[in-house]
User: Fold this.
Amino acid sequence: MDMLLDLIAGYGLLVVFVSVFLDQGGLPIPAYPPLVVTAALAVDKGESVLPILAVATLAAVLADLLWFTGGRRFGVRLLRLMCRLSLSPDSCVLMTRDIYARWGAPSLIGAKFVPGFAAVATTLAGENRTPVPRFVFFDSLGAMLWAGVAVALGAIFHEAVNDVLLRLEDLGRYGLPLVLAVIAAFVAYKWWQRHRFLQELKMARITVPELYQLLSGGAMPLILDVRSPAQRDDGWIPGAVFVASLADAQLDPQDEVIVYCDCPNEASAALLARELKKRGFGRVRPLAGGFHAWQAEGYEVARDV
Assistant:
């Protein structure tokens, strides 16, 4: 534990940069504790906390730029990968994407304070072709605000932070394992949340061949497309109605409804399907594999002329 405290005391800014960069890069490494501790130690030494704020902001923006660039280059493919690996799969659902569709780049100011949204906001910005200067401006404001809260907590409650550090130091060799145990508990909690969320999405799906046979047989189910506007550039299933948010799904109840998206586990489609069932719709099923699976089968795709 002494080694860890010495590391923070001697290389505080480096510790802040690495922890924030990894945290915002998507790894389950909490960045707030190092920020709070480093700020508290700086106040005790009579040093300014502004360098800590600047380094944390820079690290966050650099990490976000990587996701932004990836979103611009790979679009939905990167979003699918992120949502598949993320410990917060709810970040990819319809309501979360609706935040960026509604507010655009300014939503980045508060993105890091919204559970789930921060994980994909920067990638959505790239996918939606947000201009780089505009992205950097609003993302920097958001990163500064997010880091500023942690720095302020460390500065205001520096005495309490010091008491905690002293208690950990008194634990000697048991202090570091305790810190690691807390981090492991945090990761385990996030994994449990992911498992519970995926369990909630379990419901009957319709496969792409089944939907094709249904349409070929003359049936006219209501087909809802809940992808983002940018994703519809690749086309959509003929006859599908675009639904940008839950609020847009103000439709009259129908007996047969098919909902599709383009995210792992059909998360957005399954959540909207559950909502429609509550509103009195009859048979509502997500499309297994979403639009990507439909397109991969070579079936007809509608596009703007």
